[in-house]
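User: Let's play a game. I give you a shape written as tokens, and you guess the letters that built it. Ready? Here's round one.
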């Protein structure tokens, strides 16, 4: 893989005006501009709508005979980001996996603190389940804070006795709102744009006005009992302060007998898959995620056996 590409992406992120922990009103527009600066490919078609009363963006790739639906939850520290801004990443994966896309515009903090985002995810998923008639060809995905919401959605699905999706893919998930992972210290200089201080700021927004403890499993899934969740793929880069959030979640899932693959890629930053057009490691990671999805969708390939041993893969 190209060290020049990795260096260029790290420099791009260091030079960006965006600050995850900055003033919400300013950072929302900066992040949206970053995520939508490059137009979507000509064959990507989008429309807006709602599921369960929650705004969503529907997307598909022309010429792709979709065998299922990718249900995506965007990142942004619970306070930033949008469904529109996440279409590029979601459709890049959906193209490879042969899926259509629903990406959810859940309510943002601090205007709408916990549990608004989780409630929106559950409402939209429930409506999608009713529309599809089955969960067998639904895959849940999430990036960063959206990875947190994806796991909390799966736990809420379990509590409500709804059908679980076929699988879930988590990109650099933020799973411990106590911000206690060792990587917040050990990766502080390697991470080009995310800091422990920024995460704490966004956590304070998310929990604003509530009495919930950041260690509560309802907001920090790394502390939850994950028994009964569908197969998980957890991808992260070694140069991110949230690395331990990803690795510890995978260990927790394995301990709870959830089929899980932990895929850590050296020398790449947070949600590096979003740079798949510029970074070979990002494109390769999306290829692996697409194979994982196809392995778990009905009729698209051999399903991984239930209870398969957890696996650690490291790209070089």
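Assistant: Ready! My guess for every position:
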């Amino acid at each position: 893989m190209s060290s020049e590409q990795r260096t260029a992406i790290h420099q791009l992120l260091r030079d960006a005006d965006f600050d995850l922990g900055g003033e919400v009103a300013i950072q929302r527009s900066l992040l949206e501009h970053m995520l939508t600066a490059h137009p979507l490919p000509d064959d990507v078609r989008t429309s807006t709508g709602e599921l369960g009363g929650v705004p969503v963006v529907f997307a598909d790739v022309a010429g792709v005979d979709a065998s299922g639906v990718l249900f995506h939850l965007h990142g942004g520290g619970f306070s930033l980001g949008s469904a529109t801004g996440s279409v590029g990443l979601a459709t890049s994966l959906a193209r490879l996996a042969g899926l259509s896309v629903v990406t959810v515009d859940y309510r943002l903090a601090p205007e709408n603190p916990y549990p608004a985002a989780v409630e929106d995810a559950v409402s939209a998923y429930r409506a999608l389940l009713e529309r599809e008639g089955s969960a067998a060809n639904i895959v849940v995905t999430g990036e960063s804070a959206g990875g947190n919401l994806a796991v909390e959605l799966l736990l809420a699905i379990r509590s409500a006795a709804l059908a679980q999706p076929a699988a879930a893919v988590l990109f650099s998930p933020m799973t411990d709102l106590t911000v206690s992972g060792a990587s917040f210290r050990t990766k502080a200089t390697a991470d080009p744009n995310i800091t422990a201080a920024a995460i704490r700021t966004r956590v304070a927004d998310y929990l604003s006005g509530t009495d919930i403890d950041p260690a509560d499993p309802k907001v920090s899934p790394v502390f939850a009992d994950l028994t009964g969740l569908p197969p998980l793929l957890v991808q992260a880069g070694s140069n991110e302060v949230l690395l331990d959030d990803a690795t510890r979640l995978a260990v927790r899932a394995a301990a709870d007998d959830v089929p899980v693959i932990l895929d850590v890629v050296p020398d790449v930053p947070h949600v590096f898959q979003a740079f798949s057009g510029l970074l070979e490691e990002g494109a390769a990671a999306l290829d692996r995620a697409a194979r994982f999805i196809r392995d778990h969708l009905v009729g698209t390939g051999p399903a991984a056996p239930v209870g398969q041993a957890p696996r650690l893969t490291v790209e070089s």
